[in-house]
Design a protein that fits this description.
Largest sheet: 6 strands, antiparallel
Number of strands: 11
Shape: elongated
Number of helices: 15
Number of domains: 4
Helix content: 40-55%
Order of helices and strands: HHHHHHHHEEEHEHEHHHEEEEEEHH
Strand order of the largest sheet: 6-9-10-11-8-7
CATH topology of the largest domain: Nucleotidyltransferase, domain 5
């Protein structure tokens, strides 16, 4: 269009011997350039006005075979990847370095939208596909176009960040097809000030075990945080009136562990209030399944091993730098205190064989000198399973280790010679200052609000029965 306009202006100028200044004003150039155009017109005619780069590809144009490779890789290997992540994977695994806008133009020209596309982009693509669908007659083409239309997703509003590292740790779990064909739960903890993932763990369900593992990573790698911000699951908060037994009251255990370390727990029923961790799950659901698939992780054990390296890579890319952000994490406790604090408790009774039954196995209490201790049937015992898997029991004001009783003896007194005369080895037993003493734990439970509500209801019920009789 510009070349044709120039040609018509110069042709009219030459034929009518018009004003060169007027022609220069129309074309937005100088009088000297008008003279050059007139000379070119007289020598070559209309061909002179054709630009020299017409029909030539720019030097930075991507070759057609690379475009086809980008399309094929997205369809087969890196499907469901957002465009920014796809560019990173192309550079890392395929050695193809292209910009995000280039990938976006290539894929969107074929009707492919990013899973993280904005609402305006989806609307514009929907209108474009609608026009194509109206213009085509083939049912196959209509079905293919319809598949490319991505449903709109709600976004979470932002909230201001905290001032210090460790001031607020947001924790949550997300159920998703992270790997394989079964849904699993990813538990993560995110620092609100920097957006750093400080703990991550896969489990089959959203459980106390998953959050204990995340807490263990925080204590080992960073220290004791000031506060946890979570949803109102029973792992963190318990307000149900008709409570199950104490061993199912997981709020008491996690809450008591936080109390021993001086960590505050704040809960909310509004997901937007902890938008940092909610938005992070959107990013992880877009990126992590592809990374796990490329790494060949198919089990929870493999996925948790892969998380260690991936979280470091993720933080390096997305977390804010710690230049001027002060840390309020307290000093890490020793391993012994961590193992005893992050413990799971179960109430049991001594049976008529002077043993404790747990998970279809029988255990006998052992004192610090390695000798078994026998209590009467019905004696109350608090079984303590430390984080590293050791089993203890608190009976009264004493703590013992637990030894599993095998189904069959390993040796025979009648057929194995010589018989061992070694004394039982001494056992390590936590001191009475450890946080899971039965009396201390029971005292804490009785202070809980829901405990008083249940006690009051039980008393009223007993009184009503007495009156009725």
């Amino acid at each position: 269009m510009t070349e044709q306009y120039k040609y018509e202006i110069i042709k009219r100028l030459v034929e009518t011997k018009g004003n060169k200044d007027n022609a220069a004003l129309k074309l937005g150039c100088t009088r000297r350039n008008i003279n050059r155009l007139i000379k070119g017109y007289l020598d070559q005619g209309k061909i002179f006005f054709i630009h020299g780069n017409r029909g030539r590809k720019p030097s930075h144009t991507i070759e057609d075979n690379i475009k086809e490779n980008i399309l094929n890789l997205y369809r087969t290997k890196y499907y469901n990847t957002n465009f920014t992540h796809y560019c990173e994977l192309l550079e890392e695994h395929e050695k193809i370095k292209v910009s995000v806008s280039t990938v976006q133009n290539i894929l969107m020209s074929e009707g492919m939208l990013s899973p993280k596309a904005r609402r305006v982009t989806k609307k514009r693509m929907r209108l474009k596909l609608k026009k194509q669908r109206n213009a085509t007659k083939s049912k196959k083409e209509v079905a293919k176009i319809t598949e490319n239309i991505v449903a709109l997703e709600d976004a979470h509003p932002r909230r201001p960040r905290c001032a210090f590292l460790g001031e607020m740790i947001q924790m949550d779990a997300s159920v998703h097809f992270w790997f394989g064909d079964k849904k699993t739960h990813l538990h993560i903890a995110v620092d609100d000030a920097t957006g750093t993932v400080v703990g991550a763990y896969f489990d089959r369900q959203e459980t106390l075990k998953g959050y204990y593992n995340v807490f263990h990573q925080i204590l080992n790698n960073h220290g004791i945080p000031y506060m946890f911000y979570t949803d109102r699951r029973t792992v963190f908060e318990y307000r149900q009136k008709k409570s199950p037994s104490l061993e199912k009251d997981t709020f008491t255990q996690f809450g008591y562990a936080c109390k021993q370390l001086g960590v505050e727990i704040r809960t909310t029923s509004n997901p937007q209030a902890k938008g940092r961790v909610e938005r992070m799950f959107q990013t992880l659901q877009s990126r992590l399944p592809i990374e796990l698939r490329l790494a060949g992780a198919t089990t929870i054990e493999q996925a948790n091993i892969f998380l260690d390296s991936y979280i470091q890579k993720y933080n390096a890319k997305f977390a804010l730098p710690l230049n001027n952000i002060k840390s309020v994490f307290e000093k890490q406790p020793d391993n012994e205190k961590i193992n005893l604090t992050l413990a799971v408790l179960v109430n049991r009774k001594i049976d008529n064989g002077h043993c404790i039954r747990l998970n279809k196995k029988y255990y006998k209490p052992i004192d610090s000198n390695g000798y078994p201790v026998y209590y009467h049937k019905g004696t109350l015992a608090l079984v303590i399973k430390s984080f590293d898997g050791q089993l203890f029991t608190s009976i009264g004001e004493k703590v013992y280790t637990l030894d599993e009783i095998p189904e069959h003896e390993y040796t025979s007194r009648n057929f194995h010679y010589p018989q061992s005369t070694e004394k039982p080895r001494k056992r390590y037993i936590p001191p009475m200052s450890h946080p899971w003493k039965k009396s201390t734990f029971t005292k804490f439970v009785k202070k809980q609000k829901h405990y008083y509500e249940q006690s009051f209801e039980s008393a009223m019920y007993s009184q009503a029965l007495t009156i009725a009789k």
